[in-house]
Amino acid sequence: MKTTKTNWAQFIPLVTVFFFWGFVAASNDILIPVFKKAFHLSQAQSQLVAFTFYIAYTVGSLIYLLISYLIKGDLINRIGYKNSLALGLLISALGTLLFYPAANLGSFPLMLSGLFIVALGFSLQQTVANPLAIVLGPITTGSQRLTMAGGINNLGTTIGPLIVSFAIFGAATSTTTEMSIESVKIPYLILGLAFLLVAILLKFSSLPDKPELEIESDSVESSIRSSSLKYPQLILGMVAIFIYVGVEVATASNLPAYMEKNLGFLTKDIAPYISLYWASMMIGRWTGAVEAFTDKMSTQKILRFVAPYLAFGIFLTVNAIAKHDLTPFYVYALIILVLIGADIASKGNPARMIFIFSGLGIIALIIGMSTTGMISVYAFISVGLFCSTQWPCIFTLALSGLGKHTSQGSSFLIMMIMGGGFVSLLQGYIADIYTIQSSYFIDILCFIYLLFFAWRVSKILKLQGINFDKQISSGH
Predict the structure, then answer these.
(1) CA angle at 212 for the pair 224 and 196, rounded to the nearest 5°
(2) d(Cα 32, Cα 211) in Å, to the nearest integer?
(3) CA-CA distance, 149 to 285, in Å (whole number)?
(4) Can you say how many angstroms the Cα of residue 376 is from the centroid of all Cα atoms in its chain?
(5) Across all residues in the chain, what is the average pLDDT?
(6) Residue 287 in 3-state DSSP?
């Protein structure tokens, strides 16, 4: 990769789609308890919202691979990256239109269909945007750039639950089912219009149509192996993405039911806590992205403390505007110090970061399962901090050394986002049989695999001549 610095003129328009993914995904956590009451669903049935949304990513990836096979060429390369992003946004916009008849008819299947089509468009956008974020600058800061894009994603996840919650409960606080469901359609129609506007923006942006998407493009391995599936790091990475998205989504999507059933929260009062969970992802990603901003070690040290509290400040500001009581959230500033320490200890190595953060995720879940009251809630919310940088680290490690197979490998990783649906559904079933609090044991198992992935893949990459400690020291 010849690029020596981040191309901000291209990177900034790209991250708008990352914002949308976060906005919709986090809003689902507000829709789940609303749909559960409105349609009289069990906890497992309510998780069909998450399942439908995330399984669409897999279906979208399979459609992409099938079309590429039929046309005997890569679909995205054929129509161009900008056109692919615009097409993905158009598909998502069509999905939002279904919310209107679904709300009017009070139809749960039609609501799920709308979410499915929205996520189908997201699947195409993700396949294009993730590797694109990595290559719009030097490869040594590719992981940090993807982390930064993830931070914008989590700006959407922080705002999304609050806006959707306000749309449902703000104007009319009546708890009648029909009114709550009816009020869902307006924010999603506005979202559809935003999709169309951004599609036009990206179409006329300076983003490259056919960028060079080869990570470690001079790798000898890439010229020998015939497919991305021949690389053990990709296979392990596919499982890791499935597991990671699973634990990230399941932790948040089962939290409202826990707070309602165990702590007596009203559905309309849960939104700030869901917002804090997703804000935790933003806090962690802004912290992990500081190396993409500057090469100066002294500035990086300062930013490692400034960035997370700036992100936390955004969460507090947004909730202050929404007129929520901020008093319960100030204590979270102390938990953020744990994140900063973990980030410093990882020294920018993606495998080491996954290992440390997964260990802390396990500790947070154990505390959440073994305590009661708000301590358990903050423990579960802090899982967001320790999930925050997992995606870009897994993505970077899984694609390292793939060379010309990078684009294909990316589509296989996006396919595994379905883990968000499967793990949420499994946890929902366990919660129905036992308790919601005990169901979080599933997430501990997920983190144990991520520990194994970090250890194993670092050894595999070293055997292929890829050492991130050396790359990082030479890159900075």
Answers:
(1) 130
(2) 39
(3) 8
(4) 23
(5) 85
(6) helix
pLDDT above 90 for 183: no
Percent of the chain with pLDDT over 70: 89
Secondary structure class of 348 (helix, strand, coil): coil
> Averaged over 80-109, what is the pLDDT?
92
Inter-helix orientation angle 255-263/232-253, to 10°: 30
The two three-digit tokens of residue 461, written as one number: 């990459």
Say how far apart CA 410 and CA 51 lie, in whole Å: 21
| Cβ(135)–Cβ(2) below 8 Å | no
Q: Are 27 and 164 within 8 A, CB to CB? A: yes
Please compute the mean of the pLDDT values over residues 176-182 and round it to a whole number.
55
Give the residue among 230, 209, 281, 251 at the shortest CA–CA distance from 428: 251
pLDDT of residue 178: 43
334: number of CA atoms within 13 Å, CB side? 6
Please give the radius of gyration of the chain, using alpha carbons only, rounded to the nearest integer.
21
Scored b (16 or more CB within 10 A) or e, 247-270 reads: bbbbbbbbbbbbbbeeeebebbeb
Question: For 200-255, how does the pLDDT look when each residue is reduced to its tens digit (9 = 90+)?
Answer: 988 888 887 776 644 444 444 445 566 778 899 999 999 999 999 999 999 998 99
Count the residues in the chain.
476
